[in-house]
Structures are given as structure tokens and as C-alpha cells.
Amino acid sequence: MENNNAFTYQYSAKQSEEVARIRDRYVDREESKLEMLRRLDSRVRMAGKIPALCIGVIGCLIFGVGMCFGLDVFGGADWLTLAFGGAGVLTMLPAYPVYKRLSKKEKARLAPEILQLSGELMQG
């Protein structure tokens, strides 16, 4: 009589990939130069987007309130239409200059590091 108490289990290929992905999230690894370059480039491109979007969205919401007054949703008052509409437009106007200024400032700040990393990667 043979006593076979061993338990074996084999993962399928799909399960092995999932296990490897989960394991990779928890393994500390050093960032490569290419990954660092990508991260810095992303920071430069995203620098002004969030503040500019916030300014633009707030301006659009104010402008929308003005449209509601103009369409008699809140009760028509022409002066409120002009006041809110104008305030919304004036709030939206600086969104693009804010984006350009912040992006330019971040680009100037990170350019030396990006150029150094890209030079190292292109040589070696």
C-alpha cells in the first residue's frame, strides 16, 4: 500500500502571468535612465495642464450660469446674463497663457537634466 500525501498544483500560463504582474508591483526595482527620461518629459508636458484646466472649467461654469439667466432658467435678468457671461469669458481667457507660462518654467527647470540623460542614452 502506497502512501501518497504530496500535493502538487501547476499554474496555467494565464495565471502565471497574473502572478508575475502582481509580484512585480511589490518588488523594489531601480528606475532605468530611459524611464527617468520619460518621467521628466511627462512632468514638463503636464506642468501647466491642471491649473489651466481648473481656470477654464471655472470660467465655463460661470459662463454657463450667465447662459441660464439668458435662457430664463433662473428667471430672466439681462444684466445678470451680461455680468455672468462676461465674468465667465474673462475667467477663461487667462487659461492658455497660464498653461504656456507654467510649461515654459518647468521646461527651463528640467531641461539640463533631460539633456544630460538623453545624451547619456544616445552615447551608450
List the helices and strands and how they pair.
Layout: H1 13-26, H2 33-46, H3 49-70, H4 78-92, H5 95-123
Helix pairs in contact: 2-5, 3-4, 3-5
Characterize this entry briefly.
With 124 residues, this protein is mostly helical. It has helices at residues 13-26, 33-46, 49-70, 78-92, 95-123.
Could you explain the architecture of this structure?
- It is a single chain.
- This protein is mainly alpha-helical and 124 residues long.
- It has five helices and no strands.
- It has helices at 13-26, 33-46, 49-70, 78-92, 95-123.
- The longest helix is centred in the last third of the chain and has 29 residues, at 95-123.
- The radius of gyration is 28 Å and the shape is flat.
- The protein starts with 12 loop residues before the first helix and ends with a helix.
